[in-house]
Predict the structure.
Amino acid sequence: GENVEQHPSTLSVQEGDSAVIKCTYSDSASNYFPWYKQELGKRPQLIIDIRSNVGEKKDQRIAVTLNKTAKHFSLHITETQPEDSAVYFCAAMVQGGSEKLVFGKGTKLTVNP
Amino acid sequence: SQTIHQWPATLVQPVGSPLSLECTVEGTSNPNLYWYRQAAGRGLQLLFYSVGIGQISSEVPQNLSASRPQDRQFILSSKKLLLSDSGFYLCAWSKTTTYEQYFGPGTRLTVT
């Protein structure tokens, strides 16, 4: 089945710096890759996603890139702010009609003021 | 717009007691529904998913069960809770025509 690896597990940056989180997946048939942000004690929130027919997608300070050949995708956050501090999860969709997501183990991002 | 509800928000239950968590979705029809569990400081583990009324698929063999008695209602149950059942239980929904999954507010369960 699908397996998603996420790195790093923790990331600490200074306010204003960029942050990059990387994920790899195993099933070459996967075609949908969302990213979720989870603040402490809250539900995960979908912040950006990308489909396999697109190489890059941006939304203000957030961007996601996808390399289908290498089977990896990355989240890029520019001009980080303290409110970006959270746990970020990547996921890949398992093909087969159920639309199941397989999640990475998460990255705890800390933005220091 | 669509809204997803979960209740209760928090629950403290003794070992061996039964469990019933409820999830409902408003503003959409025939959604895919999912139950996840998140242990403290850990990732998201898919427990069950449903593509329609009465259609439940289990991902992890355990003492939990799920039911979907109505189109927009998803219930997670247990006859006898274990200490290891403690965690943050999240319900999620997605449209059958798109892939985006949206999570409910969650139920924090502590088994004592």
Notes: The first strand of chain A starts at residue 4 and ends at 7. Chain A has a mean pLDDT of 94.
